[in-house]
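Table 4 source record.
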Amino acid sequence: VAALPGGRGDGQPVTTMMDLEAGTQILYYFAGPVTASLLVSSSAGYGFVALVESMVSRQKAGKAFVTLNDDDTLCQPSLIGGTNGSVELAEATHVACLSTGGNVLTYPLTELKTMTGGRGLQLMKLDDKDRLAGAAAYTRSVQITGTGRGGKEKEETLEIRSLNNAAGKRASKGKATGWTFKPTGIERLE
């Protein structure tokens, strides 16, 4: 960590500190204590809770952690509790799943297992052409991002009342939202 750049023009690129295979790109990163928990999910609708310490490797090349099929992608991991930048977040109690088709499903975080890697449990049932846009751990609210007509960026904030209306059992389809934009991601606000 001491070798990371402190600002623009300082230090060396992060990619010099790890061995990446040709054609590999970094999607997400997390800096925090090894005791922190993250919700990890894939576009296939599977995911699990993982401690950061199970993601850490002494090897410069890293280690295999999440099992993905060829056409799957990793969704943005969600911090379950602790510090998010300069903001201290309370321990999350629920999970909100969002499909690219606009369905939202929420359920208690206790329905997920803590794992050290792999594919995980089915978070949300998806139609054949539907994908998971993301999953976020939350206590009170989440922010949905997406694209509207002409590629225009859109945002929607879901507060506790809207999230409670989408409550269901893990691995079910969730509720249709009727948004006029295509969801691309979900992020915890509180």
